[in-house]
Write a structure and sequence with these properties.
Layout lengths: L1 E9 L7 H33 L3 H27 L5 H35 L1 H24 L4 H21 L12 E11 L1 H6 L5 E3 L12 H7 L1 E10 L5 E9 L9 E12 L2 E12 L12 E10 L5 E8 L4 E6 L1 H37 L6 H6 L9 H12 L10 H43 L2 E5 L3 H5 L14 H8 L1 H14 L3 E5 L24 E2 L6 E2 L1 H19 L1
Parallel strand pairs: 8-11, 11-12
Antiparallel strand pairs: 1-7, 2-6, 3-4, 4-5, 6-7, 8-9, 9-10, 13-14
Helix pairs in contact: 1-4, 1-5, 2-3, 8-11, 10-11, 11-14
Length: 571
Amino acid sequence: MSVRIYQYGSPSKMSVTGEAENQLRLQINFWNQLVGLEREFALRYREMTNNADETIASLNKQVDLKREELAALRNEMKKKRPKSDKAVESGAKQKAASLLEELKLLIGKLRTYRGEIAIMLKPRVRELEDERREQVKKLRREAAGRGLYWGNYNAVLDSYQTARIRALHSGGVLHFRRYDGTGRWTCQIQGTMTLEEAFSKANNLFQIDPVPEDAWNHPIKGERKRLCRTVARMRIASGEGAHPVWLEIPIIMHRPIHPGAKIPMVSINAKKVGDAMRWFLNVTVIEEEPQKEPFPSGRILAVNISCREKPEGSLRVACWVDNKEGAGEVNLDSSFVATNSRISELQRKRDENFNLAKERLAQWLLQTGEKGIAGPEWLLQNATVPEQWKAQSRLAALIVQWRGNRFEGDEQIFPFLENWRKQDKRLWIWQANLRDKMAGRRQEQYRVFAAKAAATYDSVIFKKLDLRRSAKSGGAGKPVAGGLERRNFKNIAGLSILQGEIRRAFDAAGKLVVEKDCSERSQKCPFCEKTAENDLAKIPLSCSKCGNSYDPDVAGANELLSNRVSTFNRT
């Protein structure tokens, strides 16, 4: 059996009110309590390990001193950089590199010793973990007592457990959240239900108004769009007498769910794009997974996913080859780069306007103070040090409050601030919608490619992606054509999204998916095996040893394919 999620968008622009808003606020409160609990127990664990042995305390002190020394040296380098000569700067860099190596050695020793101490402290750590779990259960019971629906608090607990494990592995921390009118409502269906049961509206958990049989196969596209419009409702709480409290949204059911599929869970998501609310219905289904052949003898597709800039300004996000001498590319045209540049330009314009508005407000507050004019108490409390503010929303909120509390003497500043707020809101909405449209276009293009590939080929092999390493690789922040940076190209491309769509399409079709690590092959010349020294963001590359020009992504795809075919032949 396989698990799939069907997502249906809603044309509704309704806001979150009533019990739906109450459930979101209860979820945020529950999450923040869990985060506070996690931070408390993490602090207790660190204190336990740090105080367990004098050697650990000594190593911790050395690490802190070395970090402070390195930070002070780097700050001094930043201050002297415009005036210092190359010899002085080179010496400072060498000293910083030496301090960094010493710091790494100390951290390595500390980790090793902590691992040894952790074995000794295992019984105490187990007691601490048991105490944490009991506290989590207590918080869950309290959340349920406040009226948080059981499907919602289970969803929060699942998110907490996932985020906690990720933080433990990466060394990060969980963060508190604030209520912003967006979120998710979850309904878990005990024993599952079928689509027919949802259409029948005989249950009190999840219902969909039935759609006509030709909603997905009517020959006229406009009629299919009209017939796919329906209404879904999901239980988000229990009212008096255990009667269900429904959250109802209109949806466009653009694709059918398999009649034999089981539905164990549904959720409704609300997110903001600019100042508009977008709603989605997510239906989780369990379907019978098609039988996969371990080594199919048909057509094999090798996809090498990598972001490259093309001479005409477009981005190539993948190239592919198959075992029938077919080859091709997946390209994002230059409009994606232009849209991203426009988004960056809008952000730059907003930042400039924001800095000017903060400066004008700070000057006005200073002048009124010098003249002995006292503003209202709420303004003096909320407008402290405006030149240090980082978020446009903070100034916008102050202006909205100001608009309903005008006072004598604000005529010189308030009209300017109100005009800034209106213009910033317009630019913000424009920016958010551009970003959302670009993401939607990109995902649709990737889905079309993935669907065609899954219908044509029997198996696909990927080059393994390590996006974190590529983001930190040398030259990742160097500018390329159009003043953009390579990491911006990766953000535009959404490489993991492309791989996910291909994987989902092949899994749904019962085709074989293989992932292989060949990261070094794409940087080597296929003629002489010399590692490329060129700018890897541009193609083609010219080998400095043999003089041949080659495409590194095509070379990597061919290497993937040759390894895959030889595996089939050996089997």
